[in-house]
Amino acid sequence: MQNADPAPLLQLQQLTKRYRAEDAAAVQDVSFDLHEGEILALLGPSGCGKTTTLRMIAGFETPDAGDVLIHGRSVLELAPRDRHIGVVFQDYALFPHLNLLRNVMFGMQQVPRAQRAERAREWLQLVGLATFAERMPDELSGGQQQRAALARTLAAEPRLVLLDEPFSNLDAALRESTRIEVRQLLKKAGTTAILVTHDQAEALSFADRVGVMQAGRLCQTGTPETVYHVPETAFVAEFLGHTNLLPCLAQGRQAQSPLGEINLSTEAQGEVMVSLRPEHLSLEASPASDANCEVISREFRGHDNFYRVQTAGTTPAEYKVLAPYDCVLPAGAPARLTPRQPGVILRG
Ligand SMILES: Nc1ncnc2c1ncn2[C@@H]1O[C@H](COP(=O)(O)OP(=O)(O)OP(=O)(O)O)[C@@H](O)[C@H]1O
């Protein structure tokens, strides 16, 4: 029978790193577990400590406090070749003097020498570069180099792959297709991975679990759906997309809000701050006598319309609303704004 909760592959235990005594900690008390086959995204703004965390996991940086355990053993006690960690940085780091095949063969020490070329070709096939095996890295596009770097890392059969902003210098279309391919590849190989990114769409679409970092701390981890729909703090709510923050007076599952009585997703009493995403509000044209807001602006986005509307005499006075493509209201139009999902209570 399968073990329902196998020991995690990776455990971060209250990891802390301060580069200089006079600086704030780059990473503070970061703890999480990662299970075999899982993909985690570490998401946060520039300078929040994502790369430092990744470097400590790889054993490139020594923590001031806390530990990184791989199958229960501290990463720093393991010789680099026993860590079985593969790292893909944004600058690819392919060897410029080796063709793709030799680049991929480079890390395959675990494969008998006679079989390496054949296995390397299989990896190149898997990333869609079979016909490029004899090409040199500078004869490839950025996206192809990225996939080649990934093939080289995966060919070494690491237990854990660390990806540091690996798609950041690809153009928008290539970025999207490469991230879909890379995710499929990792899932097919059953490889455990951590992606570092400041791009919320990338984190939400790529990972099984997202950890949001702020100023060195991990402030929330959960499935992409949970961190997006049930943010715990205003920072997480706003970093993951647009939202409206409403001061409310809660009584159980109901609250008095600036938009009238609303439902809450959890019970509370007293003053609370509530997040309602633009898609959790609805907007419709209304006679002025029944309106509770006025359109400030409409941004047409093809599949939908993004509105800014203002209400009179409430705080906040401005709301963001996502409306269907066929809800077209001009600036200045009176309208009715209604919450259509329960509000999410924030704790900070
Ligand atoms: N080698 C270093 N020496 C001193 N301070 C450093 C060093 N590396 C990083 N820092 C500082 O540590 C903090 C966290 O940096 P880190 O690179 O981990 O953040 P990040 O979230 O990966 O940022 P980015 O998205 O911009 O790469 C920052 O304040 C940074 O200036």
What is the element layout, followed by pairings?
Blueprint: E1 10-17, E2 27-34, E3 39-43, H1 50-58, E4 65-70, E5 73-74, H2 80-83, E6 85-88, H3 100-106, H4 113-126, H5 142-155, E7 160-164, H6 172-189, E8 192-197, H7 200-206, E9 209-214, E10 217-222, H8 224-229, H9 234-239, E11 244-257, E12 260-276, E13 281-285, E14 293-300, E15 304-310, E16 318-324, E17 334-339, E18 344-346
Parallel strand pairs: 3-8, 3-9, 6-7, 7-8
Antiparallel strand pairs: 1-2, 1-4, 4-5, 9-10, 11-12, 12-18, 13-17, 14-15, 14-17, 15-16
Helix pairs in contact: 3-4, 3-5, 4-5, 5-6
The structure holds adenosine-5'-triphosphate.
The site of adenosine-5'-triphosphate (ATP) has 11 residues, from helix 1.
Fold and architecture overview:
Helix 3 runs parallel beside helix 5 (142-155) and helix 5 (142-155) packs parallel to helix 6. This protein has 9 helices and 18 strands. Strands 6-7-8-3-9-10 form a 6-stranded mixed sheet, sandwiched between helices. A hairpin with a 3-residue loop joins strand 14 (293-300) and strand 15 (304-310). The protein folds into 2 domains: 10-238, Rossmann fold (3-Layer(aba) Sandwich); 242-346, OB fold (Dihydrolipoamide Acetyltransferase, E2P). The mean pLDDT is 91. The radius of gyration is 24 Å and the shape is globular. The protein has helices spanning 50-58, 80-83, 100-106, 113-126, 142-155, 172-189, 200-206, 224-229, 234-239; strands spanning 10-17, 27-34, 39-43, 65-70, 73-74, 85-88, 160-164, 192-197, 209-214, 217-222, 244-257, 260-276, 281-285, 293-300, 304-310, 318-324, 334-339, 344-346. It is α+β, with helices and mostly antiparallel strands.
